[in-house]
Amino acid sequence: MDRFHLMSVFVAVAEEESFAGGARRLGMSPPAVTRAIAMLEEHLGIKVLTRTTRFVRATDAGLRYLESARRIIAEAEEADEAAAGVHAAPRGHLAVTAPVLFGSIYVMPGIVDYLKRYPDVSVSAMFLDRVVNLMEEGLDVGVRIGELPDSTMRAIRVGHVRRVVCAAPEYLKQYGMLNEPQDLVTHRVICAIPVSPANEWRFGTGKMLESVKIVPRLTVTNNDAAIQAALQGLGVTRLMSYQIAAHLAAGRLTRVLADYEPPPLPIHVLHREGRQPSAKVRSFVDLLVERLRADIALS
């Protein structure tokens, strides 16, 4: 019994939450994956996965084993690459996360470029508008917008974005320009929850901090929906500068209250700290950092 192989199969199935998905990732047949998990559970004397007709999930004991298994596999990969030297070609599977629109606009082109350069690597991209724990969810690289808490992650700053209030020119022509934050109370407001989760928008900083209670005409859970509503002239919305950069440049949206904007939010590329990052992580981080730092919309 190859325990390392069984461990690798378990990690693939647990992360894909599917025997078929784990089999595809590893290039194995589903029956072979099922047998490997059965052998692992027999060896450990515990159930590491809960199976139903709808999903596969790690048990509590399986989650503890998953964390250890990921660490062991990562250390083995580091050892392999240390033996091969710093010029080892990237290979294996890379898992990446970023906010939804940022991932689509800025990270996905980098992933495509990366896959074209390195044919022995496959990538899973998880684009979500929530904070993702790289360690807990088995991810290699993440993009985070906002201040970072202390962690064991290595963080590389690549730029910044701002919270921007905007509206369509047609709307502003009909309802008037906003000159100060309190003007929002007389306007139709579109609230995008991922950017402004509370109905209180804050402007400025320090002694110049000002808060405005918002009564939204429309509340959406998706930033793109807020953009579309603003483009159609429904009202004023608040979004991240990168999300609307193309619309501002084309004149489809107009930036308002720029003098009252809060301080910019930093953008970092994160990866799990290790004694020596694997070639697949190191090469992807280098490529992504270079691309993001060169983008004028993020500087």
Which structural class should the secondary elements be placed in?
A: alpha/beta
Cα(first) to Cα(last) distance is: 53 Å
Overall body shape: elongated
- In CATH, the topology of the domain at 163-260 is named D-Maltodextrin-Binding Protein, domain 2
Radius of gyration: 23 Å
Describe the strand arrangement of the main beta sheet, using strand numbers.
Answer: 4-3-5-14-6
Biggest sheet, in brief?
5 strands, mixed
What is the top-level CATH class of the domain at 163-260?
Answer: Alpha Beta
Q: How helical, in percent, are the residues? A: 40-55%
How much of the polypeptide forms β-strand, as a percent range? 15-25%
Topology, element by element:
Layout: H1 3-16, H2 19-26, H3 30-44, E1 49-51, E2 56-58, H4 60-84, E3 92-98, H5 100-117, E4 121-127, E5 141-145, E6 153-161, E7 163-167, H6 169-175, E8 189-192, E9 200-203, E10 210-213, E11 218-220, H7 223-231, E12 236-240, H8 241-250, E13 254-256, E14 265-272, H9 279-293
Parallel strand pairs: 3-4, 3-5, 8-11, 8-12
Antiparallel strand pairs: 1-2, 5-14, 6-14, 7-12, 7-13, 9-10
Helix pairs in contact: 1-2, 1-3, 1-4, 2-3, 5-9
Can you describe what's shown?
The protein is an alpha/beta fold. Among the domains are: 1-87, Arc Repressor Mutant, subunit A; 163-260, D-Maltodextrin-Binding Protein, domain 2 (3-Layer(aba) Sandwich), CATH 3.40.190.290. The chain contains 9 helices and 14 strands. Helix 1 (3-16) crosses helix 2 and helix 2 (19-26) packs across helix 3. The chain is elongated, with a radius of gyration of 23 Å.
What is this structure, in a nutshell?
The protein has 299 residues and is α/β, with parallel strands linked by helices. Helices cover 40% and strands 23% of the residues. Among the domains are: 1-87, Winged helix-like DNA-binding domain superfamily/Winged helix DNA-binding domain (Arc Repressor Mutant, subunit A); 163-260, D-Maltodextrin-Binding Protein, domain 2, CATH 3.40.190.290.
